[in-house]
């Protein structure tokens, strides 16, 4: 429209500049242009846009789902944009495919990046008129609400259940004799059994050799401790650290529940927030899932001294405590190391933190400028300081899980199964 109007204005100026040209020519030009504009408006009229959207009501954080949009009475050249909320990441431009009946459809992939209930409020549509004189840009109400919840895909798939049952029950039940610490039953001693399993007192009463069958002790306390301070808000691998931690925590909690242990939950930041006493079975997992879904993204600094002191006071029985946290450097980690050391005197502690893949890629790549050299030095210093902290924790007897976000769950469950097999709790 601006191009045509500019051309008409330029011709009118030329007509006015040439004195011999009749003024009626300019008026006729604008009259023709006005008629064309009115005709374009009439030809481009369309009915009210009817929008339907199809989407899952619940999405696991970190996963990608499709929003399916359908627009009725749509023109052939229809594009759009959605106002994405903070918890959902999607493409900015939407291209619709319009059929012969005037129905436009689009499938929009979007990624859930933060927990909570997020609403896509508005949809912006845009199309040009029949002759291109106008652009229509209506703002329509979309109202698509997605509830983003902690990721339990591994639990739902049954992969963790199969692994734990195979590792604990499939092996322990067949090789229980002499390998556990909890008495199960007596049985006649036969050749091939471990001589150490013979119960000599009962054998003397019965006047035949009797062996004890032992099983691994169950009903241990497993505490999931989540640091929800501001450092856990940092995005790594496209999601905040706290969401990676929650995914691994839920998977481990399910493994512990399947393994016959009691699972508890503890969250903290500047002060202790939530403590759920260890509970057996799937109730513990359901409670943990509900608690983690309600955790906010806070900007408060973590007080490790207060948090670890409170946790130590609330867990008098020796337990397996899995701490998900992070730190910046050795200076900021001093109080963390000191308090975890106190906790490790009574309990078995697993310290879980996540590496930043971008930081490691920065170290592996040769710098191309002086700024790149400075970044490389800073990255190397950060990695060295993290390694020092991990070594100090290991010397205290703490099990350290320091890996990339996508590998945390597998390593953590592997450590849990190893602890169960060795009966370290």
From TrEMBL:
SUPFAM superfamilies, per the entry: vWA-like
InterPro entries found in the cross-reference section: DUF58, vWFA_dom_sf
Residue ranges annotated for the DUF58 domain, each copy included: 188-361
Name of the protein: Uncharacterized protein (DUF58 family)
